[in-house]
Amino acid sequence: MKFSQLYSEAMRDQSHRPDLYIEVTRRLRERENLTPWQRFLPYSKRVAVGAVCLIVLIVGAVALPNLLQTSDLASPESEATDEAVDDTASAAGAVIVGSANDTANDGSADTTNEEPDVPKGKMAFTPIDTGSANINGDIAEDEGASFNYVDDEANSGETDGTTDIPKSRMFVPRGDDIAETDIPDIDYEYNGEVAADNIAEVTLSAYLTAYYGGAKVTTTFLSYAEFGANGEAMWQFYSYPNDFQSSVVAPAVADVLAQNRDVEVNSALFTTRDTSCLLFQLEDENMNNVYLFINDRDALSLSHTNPSSDSDTADSTEFSLAVGTFAKLKSIVLS
Amino acid sequence: MSLSLNSAEDFPGVFERYSQMVYRLVLARVRNPADADDITQDLFLKYVSHKKIYNDEEHRKAWLIRAAVNTSKTFVTSAWNRHRSADELPDTLGAGNPDIENAEAKSTVLDAVMSLPVKYRTAIHLFYYEDMQTNQIAAVLGVPENTVKSHLRRARSLLQTKLKGVDFDEV
Protein backbone atom coordinates (compact mmCIF):
# COMPACT_ATOMS: atom_id res chain seq x y z
CA MET A 1 0.00 0.00 0.00
CA LYS A 2 1.15 3.44 -0.80
CA PHE A 3 1.28 5.97 2.01
CA SER A 4 -0.05 8.78 -0.16
CA GLN A 5 -3.11 6.76 -1.08
CA LEU A 6 -3.84 5.68 2.46
CA TYR A 7 -3.33 9.14 3.88
CA SER A 8 -5.39 10.85 1.20
CA GLU A 9 -8.27 8.45 1.68
CA ALA A 10 -8.06 8.82 5.43
CA MET A 11 -8.11 12.59 5.12
CA ARG A 12 -10.99 12.59 2.66
CA ASP A 13 -12.99 10.78 5.28
CA GLN A 14 -12.54 13.79 7.52
CA SER A 15 -14.98 16.59 6.94
CA HIS A 16 -16.05 19.71 8.67
CA ARG A 17 -19.45 19.87 10.22
CA PRO A 18 -22.29 20.25 7.70
CA ASP A 19 -23.62 23.49 9.10
CA LEU A 20 -20.30 25.29 8.95
CA TYR A 21 -21.30 27.35 5.93
CA ILE A 22 -24.56 28.31 7.61
CA GLU A 23 -22.69 29.36 10.69
CA VAL A 24 -20.21 31.42 8.69
CA THR A 25 -22.92 33.22 6.76
CA ARG A 26 -24.84 33.87 9.98
CA ARG A 27 -21.73 35.42 11.49
CA LEU A 28 -21.24 37.50 8.37
CA ARG A 29 -24.78 38.83 8.59
CA GLU A 30 -24.25 39.67 12.23
CA ARG A 31 -21.10 41.53 11.35
CA GLU A 32 -22.90 43.53 8.67
CA ASN A 33 -25.43 44.65 11.24
CA LEU A 34 -22.82 45.87 13.67
CA THR A 35 -22.61 49.56 14.30
CA PRO A 36 -19.30 51.25 13.51
CA TRP A 37 -18.62 51.44 17.21
CA GLN A 38 -19.22 47.72 17.65
CA ARG A 39 -16.94 46.95 14.74
CA PHE A 40 -14.27 49.18 16.16
CA LEU A 41 -14.52 47.62 19.59
CA PRO A 42 -15.91 44.09 19.52
CA TYR A 43 -17.52 42.60 22.55
CA SER A 44 -14.42 40.78 23.72
CA LYS A 45 -12.37 43.97 23.49
CA ARG A 46 -15.07 45.94 25.24
CA VAL A 47 -14.88 43.48 28.10
CA ALA A 48 -11.09 43.82 28.21
CA VAL A 49 -11.23 47.61 28.09
CA GLY A 50 -13.89 47.64 30.77
CA ALA A 51 -11.81 45.40 32.98
CA VAL A 52 -8.79 47.65 32.58
CA CYS A 53 -10.84 50.73 33.38
CA LEU A 54 -12.26 49.01 36.45
CA ILE A 55 -8.78 48.12 37.66
CA VAL A 56 -7.61 51.69 37.12
CA LEU A 57 -10.58 53.01 39.06
CA ILE A 58 -9.96 50.63 41.93
CA VAL A 59 -6.27 51.44 42.06
CA GLY A 60 -7.05 55.13 41.85
CA ALA A 61 -9.60 54.89 44.61
CA VAL A 62 -7.08 53.17 46.81
CA ALA A 63 -4.13 55.37 45.95
CA LEU A 64 -5.83 58.73 45.77
CA PRO A 65 -6.51 59.12 49.49
CA ASN A 66 -2.86 58.40 50.19
CA LEU A 67 -1.78 60.96 47.63
CA LEU A 68 -4.14 63.51 49.06
CA GLN A 69 -2.99 62.76 52.54
CA THR A 70 0.57 63.65 51.74
CA SER A 71 -0.46 67.09 50.57
CA ASP A 72 -3.25 67.55 53.01
CA LEU A 73 -3.25 70.70 55.04
CA ALA A 74 -2.71 69.67 58.54
CA SER A 75 -5.56 70.66 60.75
CA PRO A 76 -5.12 70.85 64.46
CA GLU A 77 -8.02 68.58 65.08
CA SER A 78 -7.01 65.80 62.77
CA GLU A 79 -3.33 66.01 63.36
CA ALA A 80 -3.27 66.80 67.01
CA THR A 81 -2.91 63.18 67.88
CA ASP A 82 0.07 62.71 65.64
CA GLU A 83 3.05 61.72 67.59
CA ALA A 84 6.01 63.97 67.60
CA VAL A 85 9.18 62.69 66.14
CA ASP A 86 10.66 61.81 69.36
CA ASP A 87 9.13 61.77 72.75
CA THR A 88 12.40 62.40 74.41
CA ALA A 89 12.85 65.53 72.44
CA SER A 90 9.79 67.02 74.00
CA ALA A 91 11.54 67.30 77.23
CA ALA A 92 12.42 70.85 78.09
CA GLY A 93 15.87 71.72 77.05
CA ALA A 94 16.37 68.73 74.84
CA VAL A 95 18.25 69.61 71.76
CA ILE A 96 17.48 68.27 68.38
CA VAL A 97 18.35 64.68 67.88
CA GLY A 98 19.66 62.95 64.85
CA SER A 99 22.38 65.23 63.73
CA ALA A 100 25.26 64.55 61.46
CA ASN A 101 27.29 64.01 64.53
CA ASP A 102 24.72 61.81 66.03
CA THR A 103 25.57 58.74 64.07
CA ALA A 104 23.12 56.66 65.94
CA ASN A 105 20.33 58.94 64.89
CA ASP A 106 18.07 56.80 66.87
CA GLY A 107 16.01 59.44 68.46
CA SER A 108 17.66 59.14 71.79
CA ALA A 109 17.78 62.35 73.72
CA ASP A 110 21.00 64.18 73.43
CA THR A 111 21.14 66.53 76.31
CA THR A 112 24.77 67.37 76.00
CA ASN A 113 26.01 70.67 74.80
CA GLU A 114 27.91 69.27 71.91
CA GLU A 115 27.41 70.11 68.31
CA PRO A 116 23.84 70.96 67.47
CA ASP A 117 21.79 68.13 66.22
CA VAL A 118 20.35 68.96 62.89
CA PRO A 119 18.39 66.53 60.80
CA LYS A 120 20.59 64.84 58.30
CA GLY A 121 18.20 65.58 55.55
CA LYS A 122 17.95 69.22 56.49
CA MET A 123 21.54 70.30 56.35
CA ALA A 124 21.01 73.09 53.88
CA PHE A 125 20.86 75.81 56.48
CA THR A 126 23.13 78.58 55.42
CA PRO A 127 24.71 80.67 58.04
CA ILE A 128 24.29 84.34 57.37
CA ASP A 129 26.99 85.12 59.78
CA THR A 130 30.15 83.89 58.21
CA GLY A 131 32.14 85.27 61.05
CA SER A 132 32.84 83.48 64.20
CA ALA A 133 29.93 81.96 65.88
CA ASN A 134 28.76 83.98 68.72
CA ILE A 135 26.22 82.20 70.73
CA ASN A 136 26.50 84.36 73.74
CA GLY A 137 24.24 87.00 72.42
CA ASP A 138 26.98 89.58 72.45
CA ILE A 139 26.34 90.91 69.04
CA ALA A 140 28.58 93.88 69.42
CA GLU A 141 31.60 91.65 69.21
CA ASP A 142 30.38 89.71 66.28
CA GLU A 143 31.76 91.72 63.44
CA GLY A 144 30.55 89.33 60.82
CA ALA A 145 26.96 89.77 61.64
CA SER A 146 25.24 92.01 59.19
CA PHE A 147 22.02 91.90 57.39
CA ASN A 148 20.25 94.22 55.15
CA TYR A 149 16.59 93.68 55.27
CA VAL A 150 13.65 94.73 53.24
CA ASP A 151 13.43 98.27 54.45
CA ASP A 152 16.62 99.11 52.72
CA GLU A 153 14.63 100.52 49.90
CA ALA A 154 17.58 101.65 47.96
CA ASN A 155 18.85 98.15 47.82
CA SER A 156 20.98 99.41 45.07
CA GLY A 157 24.20 97.85 46.06
CA GLU A 158 25.47 101.10 47.39
CA THR A 159 27.82 100.78 50.22
CA ASP A 160 25.91 101.04 53.41
CA GLY A 161 27.99 98.72 55.48
CA THR A 162 25.82 95.77 54.81
CA THR A 163 25.19 93.37 52.04
CA ASP A 164 22.17 94.04 49.95
CA ILE A 165 19.86 91.17 49.55
CA PRO A 166 17.20 91.31 46.89
CA LYS A 167 13.82 91.84 48.37
CA SER A 168 12.50 88.83 46.60
CA ARG A 169 15.10 86.80 48.39
CA MET A 170 14.71 88.47 51.69
CA PHE A 171 15.77 86.16 54.42
CA VAL A 172 16.38 83.41 51.93
CA PRO A 173 20.11 83.17 51.66
CA ARG A 174 20.19 80.52 49.01
CA GLY A 175 16.72 80.37 47.71
CA ASP A 176 17.77 79.10 44.32
CA ASP A 177 19.16 76.00 45.88
CA ILE A 178 15.96 75.12 47.58
CA ALA A 179 13.68 72.76 45.81
CA GLU A 180 10.14 73.89 45.41
CA THR A 181 8.69 70.49 45.74
CA ASP A 182 7.23 68.88 48.78
CA ILE A 183 6.31 72.11 50.38
CA PRO A 184 3.53 71.55 52.84
CA ASP A 185 0.68 73.94 52.82
CA ILE A 186 0.82 76.68 55.35
CA ASP A 187 -2.33 78.17 56.65
CA TYR A 188 -1.63 81.62 57.80
CA GLU A 189 -3.77 84.36 59.11
CA TYR A 190 -2.54 87.76 59.92
CA ASN A 191 -4.46 90.65 61.32
CA GLY A 192 -2.71 93.86 61.96
CA GLU A 193 -4.32 96.88 63.36
CA VAL A 194 -2.78 100.08 64.52
CA ALA A 195 -4.82 102.17 66.84
CA ALA A 196 -4.71 105.93 67.08
CA ASP A 197 -2.44 105.72 70.06
CA ASN A 198 0.01 103.76 67.97
CA ILE A 199 -0.77 100.48 69.56
CA ALA A 200 -0.45 97.65 67.16
CA GLU A 201 -2.28 94.47 67.57
CA VAL A 202 -0.92 91.56 65.76
CA THR A 203 -2.38 88.15 65.57
CA LEU A 204 -0.64 85.38 63.84
CA SER A 205 -1.90 81.89 63.56
CA ALA A 206 -0.48 79.12 61.57
CA TYR A 207 -0.90 75.46 61.13
CA LEU A 208 2.17 73.76 60.00
CA THR A 209 2.96 70.22 59.15
CA ALA A 210 6.52 69.27 58.74
CA TYR A 211 8.43 66.11 58.20
CA TYR A 212 11.21 65.97 60.60
CA GLY A 213 13.58 63.10 61.01
CA GLY A 214 11.32 60.97 58.91
CA ALA A 215 8.32 61.55 61.11
CA LYS A 216 5.40 63.84 60.63
CA VAL A 217 5.24 66.71 63.00
CA THR A 218 2.28 68.96 63.27
CA THR A 219 2.14 72.07 65.28
CA THR A 220 -0.37 74.78 65.64
CA PHE A 221 0.66 78.05 67.01
CA LEU A 222 -0.99 81.29 67.62
CA SER A 223 0.66 84.44 68.68
CA TYR A 224 -0.94 87.62 69.69
CA ALA A 225 0.80 90.76 70.66
CA GLU A 226 -0.01 94.27 71.47
CA PHE A 227 2.60 96.90 71.20
CA GLY A 228 2.33 99.99 73.17
CA ALA A 229 3.47 103.38 72.09
CA ASN A 230 6.55 103.03 74.18
CA GLY A 231 7.52 99.80 72.48
CA GLU A 232 6.61 97.56 75.32
CA ALA A 233 4.71 94.54 74.35
CA MET A 234 1.95 92.65 75.90
CA TRP A 235 1.90 89.32 74.29
CA GLN A 236 0.47 85.95 74.41
CA PHE A 237 1.65 82.91 72.68
CA TYR A 238 -0.20 79.70 72.32
CA SER A 239 1.09 76.57 70.87
CA TYR A 240 -0.39 73.18 70.80
CA PRO A 241 0.56 70.54 71.05
CA ASN A 242 3.40 71.60 73.23
CA ASP A 243 5.87 70.04 70.89
CA PHE A 244 6.39 73.42 69.43
CA GLN A 245 8.06 74.46 72.60
CA SER A 246 10.55 71.75 72.20
CA SER A 247 13.52 72.17 70.03
CA VAL A 248 12.28 69.47 67.73
CA VAL A 249 9.44 71.25 66.12
CA ALA A 250 10.89 74.67 65.68
CA PRO A 251 13.64 73.65 63.30
CA ALA A 252 11.23 71.50 61.43
CA VAL A 253 8.92 74.41 61.00
CA ALA A 254 11.84 76.53 60.05
CA ASP A 255 12.85 74.17 57.37
CA VAL A 256 9.40 74.00 55.96
CA LEU A 257 9.12 77.73 55.94
CA ALA A 258 12.52 78.08 54.42
CA GLN A 259 11.49 76.20 51.37
CA ASN A 260 8.49 78.32 50.79
CA ARG A 261 10.24 81.17 49.15
CA ASP A 262 7.46 82.30 46.94
CA VAL A 263 5.47 83.95 49.60
CA GLU A 264 5.90 87.35 50.91
CA VAL A 265 8.44 87.79 53.57
CA ASN A 266 6.73 88.29 56.81
CA SER A 267 8.63 86.22 59.23
CA ALA A 268 11.96 84.70 59.77
CA LEU A 269 13.09 81.82 61.79
CA PHE A 270 16.45 81.13 63.22
CA THR A 271 18.05 78.10 64.59
CA THR A 272 21.10 78.33 66.69
CA ARG A 273 23.75 76.07 67.95
CA ASP A 274 22.05 75.52 71.21
CA THR A 275 18.56 76.73 70.86
CA SER A 276 15.85 77.56 68.44
CA CYS A 277 13.78 80.57 68.15
CA LEU A 278 11.18 82.01 65.93
CA LEU A 279 11.29 85.53 64.70
CA PHE A 280 8.31 86.89 62.92
CA GLN A 281 8.59 89.98 60.94
CA LEU A 282 5.15 91.34 60.63
CA GLU A 283 3.88 94.34 58.91
CA ASP A 284 1.11 96.49 60.16
CA GLU A 285 -1.21 98.49 58.05
CA ASN A 286 1.12 101.45 58.12
CA MET A 287 3.79 99.32 56.56
CA ASN A 288 5.81 99.39 59.71
CA ASN A 289 7.71 96.35 60.70
CA VAL A 290 7.04 94.54 63.89
CA TYR A 291 9.22 91.76 65.09
CA LEU A 292 8.15 88.95 67.29
CA PHE A 293 11.01 87.02 68.62
CA ILE A 294 10.13 83.80 70.29
CA ASN A 295 12.76 81.74 71.92
CA ASP A 296 11.59 78.39 73.00
CA ARG A 297 14.59 77.77 75.14
CA ASP A 298 13.87 80.85 77.16
CA ALA A 299 10.34 79.93 77.88
CA LEU A 300 8.97 81.72 74.91
CA SER A 301 10.33 85.07 75.75
CA LEU A 302 9.48 87.79 73.36
CA SER A 303 11.62 90.42 71.85
CA HIS A 304 10.37 92.95 69.48
CA THR A 305 11.25 96.11 67.79
CA ASN A 306 8.93 98.96 67.79
CA PRO A 307 8.04 100.34 64.41
CA SER A 308 9.88 103.49 63.72
CA SER A 309 8.10 106.25 61.94
CA ASP A 310 11.12 108.05 60.71
CA SER A 311 13.37 105.33 59.48
CA ASP A 312 12.98 102.56 56.98
CA THR A 313 15.60 100.61 58.75
CA ALA A 314 13.75 100.52 61.94
CA ASP A 315 15.62 98.84 64.67
CA SER A 316 17.95 97.14 62.32
CA THR A 317 20.30 96.86 65.21
CA GLU A 318 17.82 94.75 67.01
CA PHE A 319 17.36 92.65 64.00
CA SER A 320 21.03 92.25 63.44
CA LEU A 321 21.32 91.26 67.01
CA ALA A 322 19.11 88.36 66.32
CA VAL A 323 20.99 87.43 63.22
CA GLY A 324 24.32 87.70 64.86
CA THR A 325 23.26 85.89 67.90
CA PHE A 326 21.94 82.98 66.01
CA ALA A 327 24.32 81.69 63.50
CA LYS A 328 21.88 80.09 61.14
CA LEU A 329 19.11 81.81 59.40
CA LYS A 330 16.25 80.12 57.77
CA SER A 331 13.74 82.26 56.37
CA ILE A 332 10.43 82.34 55.39
CA VAL A 333 7.54 83.43 54.43
CA LEU A 334 3.98 83.29 55.01
CA SER A 335 1.64 84.48 52.39
CA MET B 1 -5.76 39.70 -14.80
CA SER B 2 -6.91 40.59 -11.35
CA LEU B 3 -9.98 39.05 -9.84
CA SER B 4 -12.01 40.63 -7.16
CA LEU B 5 -13.25 37.47 -5.61
CA ASN B 6 -14.10 38.72 -2.22
CA SER B 7 -17.60 39.80 -3.02
CA ALA B 8 -20.57 38.16 -1.41
CA GLU B 9 -21.52 36.52 -4.70
CA ASP B 10 -18.23 34.73 -4.86
CA PHE B 11 -18.17 33.55 -1.32
CA PRO B 12 -20.44 30.49 -1.57
CA GLY B 13 -18.39 29.06 -4.42
CA VAL B 14 -15.13 29.79 -2.67
CA PHE B 15 -16.39 28.15 0.47
CA GLU B 16 -17.54 25.09 -1.42
CA ARG B 17 -14.22 24.71 -3.22
CA TYR B 18 -11.85 25.35 -0.39
CA SER B 19 -13.58 24.77 2.93
CA GLN B 20 -12.67 21.07 3.08
CA MET B 21 -9.11 21.81 2.02
CA VAL B 22 -8.78 24.39 4.76
CA TYR B 23 -10.49 22.19 7.31
CA ARG B 24 -8.28 19.18 6.62
CA LEU B 25 -5.10 21.19 6.69
CA VAL B 26 -6.13 22.75 9.97
CA LEU B 27 -7.17 19.36 11.29
CA ALA B 28 -3.77 17.98 10.43
CA ARG B 29 -2.23 20.71 12.52
CA VAL B 30 -4.57 20.94 15.51
CA ARG B 31 -5.73 17.28 15.53
CA ASN B 32 -9.09 18.21 17.02
CA PRO B 33 -12.17 18.27 14.74
CA ALA B 34 -14.05 20.79 16.86
CA ASP B 35 -11.08 23.14 16.95
CA ALA B 36 -10.59 22.65 13.22
CA ASP B 37 -14.22 23.63 12.64
CA ASP B 38 -13.85 26.79 14.68
CA ILE B 39 -10.59 27.78 13.03
CA THR B 40 -12.03 27.13 9.58
CA GLN B 41 -15.01 29.29 10.38
CA ASP B 42 -12.82 32.12 11.66
CA LEU B 43 -10.59 31.84 8.64
CA PHE B 44 -13.44 32.29 6.18
CA LEU B 45 -14.76 35.22 8.16
CA LYS B 46 -11.29 36.68 7.88
CA TYR B 47 -11.28 35.88 4.20
CA VAL B 48 -14.44 37.88 3.61
CA SER B 49 -13.32 40.84 5.65
CA HIS B 50 -9.84 40.84 4.18
CA LYS B 51 -11.06 42.16 0.82
CA LYS B 52 -7.90 41.05 -0.89
CA ILE B 53 -7.53 41.11 -4.66
CA TYR B 54 -6.29 37.78 -5.99
CA ASN B 55 -4.44 37.38 -9.21
CA ASP B 56 -5.82 33.92 -9.93
CA GLU B 57 -7.19 30.85 -8.24
CA GLU B 58 -3.74 29.61 -7.33
CA HIS B 59 -3.09 32.88 -5.60
CA ARG B 60 -6.28 32.59 -3.62
CA LYS B 61 -5.61 28.95 -2.74
CA ALA B 62 -2.12 29.84 -1.58
CA TRP B 63 -3.53 32.65 0.57
CA LEU B 64 -6.04 30.30 2.16
CA ILE B 65 -3.36 27.69 2.87
CA ARG B 66 -1.05 30.27 4.35
CA ALA B 67 -3.87 31.76 6.41
CA ALA B 68 -4.88 28.28 7.61
CA VAL B 69 -1.33 27.54 8.68
CA ASN B 70 -0.97 30.87 10.47
CA THR B 71 -4.36 30.75 12.12
CA SER B 72 -3.84 27.25 13.38
CA LYS B 73 -0.35 28.20 14.54
CA THR B 74 -1.84 30.98 16.60
CA PHE B 75 -4.27 28.50 18.07
CA VAL B 76 -1.67 25.81 18.73
CA THR B 77 0.69 28.21 20.45
CA SER B 78 -2.03 29.93 22.46
CA ALA B 79 -1.78 29.69 26.22
CA TRP B 80 -5.23 28.20 26.42
CA ASN B 81 -4.36 25.34 24.07
CA ARG B 82 -0.96 24.70 25.64
CA HIS B 83 -2.50 24.34 29.07
CA ARG B 84 -5.35 22.23 27.86
CA SER B 85 -5.42 18.74 29.20
CA ALA B 86 -4.24 16.04 26.87
CA ASP B 87 -7.38 14.14 27.75
CA GLU B 88 -9.41 16.64 25.76
CA LEU B 89 -7.71 15.62 22.54
CA PRO B 90 -9.21 12.65 20.75
CA ASP B 91 -7.13 9.50 20.79
CA THR B 92 -7.89 8.83 17.14
CA LEU B 93 -9.62 10.69 14.36
CA GLY B 94 -11.12 7.47 13.08
CA ALA B 95 -11.44 6.24 9.58
CA GLY B 96 -14.83 7.82 9.10
CA ASN B 97 -16.39 5.03 6.99
CA PRO B 98 -16.32 1.61 8.62
CA ASP B 99 -17.44 -0.08 5.43
CA ILE B 100 -14.26 0.56 3.67
CA GLU B 101 -12.08 -2.49 3.49
CA ASN B 102 -8.87 -0.88 4.56
CA ALA B 103 -10.40 1.33 7.21
CA GLU B 104 -8.07 0.00 9.84
CA ALA B 105 -5.04 0.72 7.73
CA LYS B 106 -6.19 4.27 7.05
CA SER B 107 -6.83 4.85 10.69
CA THR B 108 -3.37 3.59 11.53
CA VAL B 109 -1.80 5.88 8.93
CA LEU B 110 -3.79 8.85 10.12
CA ASP B 111 -2.88 8.23 13.74
CA ALA B 112 0.76 7.85 12.83
CA VAL B 113 0.76 11.18 10.99
CA MET B 114 -1.03 12.87 13.84
CA SER B 115 1.66 11.69 16.23
CA LEU B 116 4.29 13.66 14.32
CA PRO B 117 5.37 17.17 15.30
CA VAL B 118 3.16 19.83 13.80
CA LYS B 119 5.71 21.10 11.30
CA TYR B 120 6.17 17.58 9.93
CA ARG B 121 2.43 17.03 9.78
CA THR B 122 2.01 20.19 7.75
CA ALA B 123 4.66 19.17 5.25
CA ILE B 124 3.27 15.65 4.95
CA HIS B 125 -0.27 16.91 4.46
CA LEU B 126 0.59 19.45 1.80
CA PHE B 127 2.87 17.05 -0.03
CA TYR B 128 0.76 13.89 0.01
CA TYR B 129 -2.77 15.22 0.22
CA GLU B 130 -2.60 18.52 -1.62
CA ASP B 131 -0.03 17.14 -4.07
CA MET B 132 2.09 20.24 -3.77
CA GLN B 133 5.74 20.25 -4.76
CA THR B 134 8.38 21.09 -2.24
CA ASN B 135 9.03 24.46 -3.82
CA GLN B 136 5.33 25.28 -3.65
CA ILE B 137 5.18 24.20 -0.03
CA ALA B 138 8.23 26.31 0.72
CA ALA B 139 6.63 29.32 -0.94
CA VAL B 140 3.32 29.00 0.82
CA LEU B 141 4.91 28.39 4.21
CA GLY B 142 7.57 31.01 3.75
CA VAL B 143 10.46 28.67 4.49
CA PRO B 144 13.41 27.49 2.38
CA GLU B 145 12.75 24.52 0.12
CA ASN B 146 15.51 22.52 1.78
CA THR B 147 13.73 22.96 5.06
CA VAL B 148 10.63 21.43 3.56
CA LYS B 149 12.67 18.55 2.17
CA SER B 150 14.31 17.89 5.51
CA HIS B 151 10.93 18.00 7.23
CA LEU B 152 9.58 15.45 4.79
CA ARG B 153 12.64 13.25 5.17
CA ARG B 154 12.45 13.23 8.96
CA ALA B 155 8.71 12.71 8.89
CA ARG B 156 9.07 9.69 6.64
CA SER B 157 11.77 8.32 8.85
CA LEU B 158 9.50 8.58 11.87
CA LEU B 159 6.55 7.14 10.02
CA GLN B 160 8.52 4.17 8.71
CA THR B 161 9.19 3.06 12.25
CA LYS B 162 5.47 3.10 12.94
CA LEU B 163 4.10 1.93 9.62
CA LYS B 164 5.78 -1.26 8.52
CA GLY B 165 5.35 -2.25 4.90
CA VAL B 166 4.08 1.14 3.70
CA ASP B 167 5.66 2.67 0.61
CA PHE B 168 6.57 6.35 0.58
CA ASP B 169 6.90 8.42 -2.54
CA GLU B 170 10.26 10.11 -2.35
CA VAL B 171 10.69 13.75 -3.14
Describe the structure.
The complex is a heterodimer of chains A (335) and B (171). With 335 residues, chain A is of the alpha+beta class. Chain A folds into two domains: 59 residues, no CATH class; 214 residues, no CATH class. Chain A is 24% helix and 22% strand. Chain A has seven helices and ten strands. In chain A, the strands form two sheets. Chain A has a six-stranded antiparallel sheet with strand order 1-10-6-7-8-9, with helices on both faces. In chain A, strands 2-3-4-5 form a four-stranded antiparallel sheet, covered by helices on one side. The longest helix of chain A is centred in the first third of the chain and has 28 residues. Chain B has two domains: 90 residues, Rna Polymerase Sigma Factor, Chain: A (Orthogonal Bundle), CATH 1.10.1740; 79 residues, Winged helix-like DNA-binding domain superfamily/Winged helix DNA-binding domain (Arc Repressor Mutant, subunit A), CATH 1.10.10.10. The longest helix of chain B has 20 residues. With 171 residues, chain B is mainly α. Chain B starts with 10 loop residues before the first helix and ends in a 9-residue tail after the last helix. The chains are: A alpha+beta (335), B mainly alpha (171). At the A-B interface, α1 and α2 of A face α1, α2, α5 and α6 of B.
